[in-house]
Amino acid sequence: MKQKQGVARTVWELAEPLCEEFGYILWDVEYVREGADMILRVTIDTDREGGITIDDCEKLHRALDPVLDEADPIEEAYMLAVSSPGVERTLTEPLHFSRMAGSDVTLKFYAAVDGKKSLRAVLGGLDPETDEIVVTVDGEEKRFPKKAVAKCETVFDW
Question: What's residue 1's pLDDT?
Answer without folding.
Answer: 33
